[in-house]
Amino acid sequence: MEEIKPIEEWTVEEFENLPMREWNKDIGEFDSLIILPTKEIHESDFRCMDFVAVRKGIPICRLSGCSDVIHLDGIGGLGYCWFNKHEKIKKTKIISAWNIDCLKESGLLRLFCFGKSLQAGLSISSFEIFSVEENEESKQ
Fold it and tell me: How much is the pTM?
């Protein structure tokens, strides 16, 4: 089996050449996200972004490509499937420790949430990302 080099050594072109997931495919949990600016301009006049899911240091796929904004923990920070539970939303929320760093080789930004896995929403005009409490199974 071919050894995959660390994401810190990947170039922008290598990230851009990853396969794109289907817009409505759930790829499951991953532990970090690489943010890729694109050359496309959104109707909002901001540049669109694409996002690469990374699991255990291995890039899985590109996630969107059509969004001008990333909503952490969903639109308004209201969590996964917020539109289905609007009436049930709690008044308090556990704080997540979100972090962004910059990869040495590519200069791209990487987003991760300390102690949590990430999950992506559907690939529509506004891309959503959510933190998920890690369980013992996902740590193995």
Answer: 0.70
